[in-house]
């Protein structure tokens, strides 16, 4: 007897599954034909306060301060500062910035791309270690936008502002020292604006972003200066030196005259004056290329007289008495009298109205101070202090945010110092006259 067995045909199934290199092994087959169960992710703690580097790389941050382990291991800059705050945004957007003189800024995304590309292979030496340039975060791009649209419109005369807005972004794309200097001064400008908007902020303390930018700027700037100079870098070096002057002038330890020099002594207080010599040194080193420079007109502004702005700000009697106090005669010159060069730098400013239009005429004074005169300031020589206070009093009226805090605080500090430490009736009378001219009367008693 034959038996016939009828078996049900098995259902067709596709057991092939694509293998992806990210998988550690081939997918396991299933006897019942069902696809393998999906592996569930284990519960984990999310990093919501990690550093910007880990967030940008989409990696978990252990949130150790001041540097997380991931950044330490890879030699990266660890930054915990927020990308933006509502307070800063409201302060900077209360009056929408407009392009200067009908100009338009470069599209910021393309600028950011060029920055990242140009600095990708640049090495920067910082704290004795050489590492790749840090990536540009949203905060860096915001700082560049602030520099282009706001800060450039506050530096120097309108013609200088126009050149800065057009030339600095173009030059900084391939030169880290200029880029970081521009970002640093933009952050300082932001802090000054916030200090005016809120009394809760400490005006004198730099932010971590400022310190980071300045460290990178100075290290790369010194590295470039140690190499032979070329015509291609002449403009960028000149602009960097002028911006560093503004940075050093704006960096003060206190705006309280009683805590300002010369009422307080510090061996490093006058170091900022050394930075003011930078543009003259760089200008002399790059003079052979200046005629081909796009910034030549910037330095021409320092010498071109301004018509229609003269007025009698200083009584000629005061000037004569000051020259007499400093023993200036017709036979005096810079080699025989340490006050001569400083007084001659001030002479053209006597009848010039301090204003934003004439600002460039006032800047060369502080950069032309001779070493012997600076030594007199270091020992608090009364006549040297009086000359500097006079320039401070004029400079306050220029309305430059980076200049006014130091000029105001130290002018008042010098007047009170000389008032409390008189060295003769003639000097005391000149101090009282100066206080009246600049609007800072000396303290009583």
Automatic annotation (TrEMBL):
<feature type="domain" description="Zn(2)-C6 fungal-type">
    <location>
        <begin position="50"/>
        <end position="80"/>
    </location>
</feature>
<dbReference type="Pfam" id="PF00172">
    <property type="entry name" value="Zn_clus"/>
</dbReference>
<keyword id="KW-0539">Nucleus</keyword>
<dbReference type="InterPro" id="IPR036864">
    <property type="entry name" value="Zn2-C6_fun-type_DNA-bd_sf"/>
</dbReference>
<dbReference type="InterPro" id="IPR052400">
    <property type="entry name" value="Zn2-C6_fungal_TF"/>
</dbReference>
<dbReference type="InterPro" id="IPR001138">
    <property type="entry name" value="Zn2Cys6_DnaBD"/>
</dbReference>
<protein>
    <recommendedName>
        <fullName>Zn(2)-C6 fungal-type domain-containing protein</fullName>
    </recommendedName>
</protein>
<dbReference type="GO" id="GO:0008270">
    <property type="term" value="F:zinc ion binding"/>
</dbReference>
<dbReference type="GO" id="GO:0000981">
    <property type="term" value="F:DNA-binding transcription factor activity, RNA polymerase II-specific"/>
</dbReference>
């Amino acid at each position: 007897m034959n038996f016939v067995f009828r078996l049900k045909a098995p259902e067709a199934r596709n057991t092939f599954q694509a293998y992806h290199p990210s998988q550690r092994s081939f997918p396991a087959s299933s006897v019942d034909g069902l696809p393998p169960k999906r592996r569930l992710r284990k519960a984990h703690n999310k990093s919501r306060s990690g550093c910007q580097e880990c967030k940008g790389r989409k990696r978990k941050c252990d949130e150790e301060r001041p540097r997380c382990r991931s950044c330490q291991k890879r030699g990266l800059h660890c930054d915990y500062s927020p990308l933006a705050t509502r307070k800063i945004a409201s302060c900077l957007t209360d009056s929408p910035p407009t392009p200067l003189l009908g100009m338009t800024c470069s599209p910021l995304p393309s600028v950011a791309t060029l920055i990242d590309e140009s600095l990708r292979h640049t090495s920067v030496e910082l704290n004795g270690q050489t590492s790749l340039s840090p990536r540009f975060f949203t905060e860096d791009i915001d700082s560049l936008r602030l520099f282009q649209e706001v800060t450039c419109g506050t530096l120097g005369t309108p013609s200088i502002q126009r050149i800065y807005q057009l030339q600095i972004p173009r030059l900084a794309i391939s030169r880290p020292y200029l880029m970081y200097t521009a970002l640093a001064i933009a952050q300082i400008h932001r802090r000054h604006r916030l200090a005016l908007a809120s009394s809760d902020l400490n005006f004198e303390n730099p932010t971590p972003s400022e310190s980071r930018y300045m460290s990178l700027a100075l290290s790369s700037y010194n590295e470039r200066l140690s190499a032979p100079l070329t015509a291609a870098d002449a403009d960028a070096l000149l602009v960097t030196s002028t911006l560093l002057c503004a940075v050093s002038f704006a960096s003060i330890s206190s705006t309280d005259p009683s805590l300002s020099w010369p009422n307080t002594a510090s061996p490093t207080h006058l170091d900022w004056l050394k930075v003011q010599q930078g543009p003259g040194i760089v200008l002399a080193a790059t003079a052979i290329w200046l005629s081909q420079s796009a910034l030549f007109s910037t330095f021409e502004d320092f010498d071109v007289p301004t018509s229609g702005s003269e007025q009698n700000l200083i009584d000629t009697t005061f000037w004569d008495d000051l020259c007499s106090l400093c023993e200036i005669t017709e036979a005096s010159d810079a080699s025989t009298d340490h006050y001569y060069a400083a007084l001659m730098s001030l002479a053209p400013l006597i009848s010039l109205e301090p204003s934003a239009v004439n600002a460039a005429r006032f800047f060369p004074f502080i950069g032309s101070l001779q070493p012997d005169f600076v030594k007199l300031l270091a020992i608090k020589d009364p006549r040297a202090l009086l000359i500097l206070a006079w320039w401070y009093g004029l400079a306050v009226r220029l309305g430059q945010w980076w200049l006014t805090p130091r000029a105001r605080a130290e002018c008042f500090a010098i007047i009170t110092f000389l008032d409390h430490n008189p060295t003769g009736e003639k000097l005391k009378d000149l101090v009282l006259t100066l206080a009246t001219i600049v609007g800072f009367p000396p303290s009583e008693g």
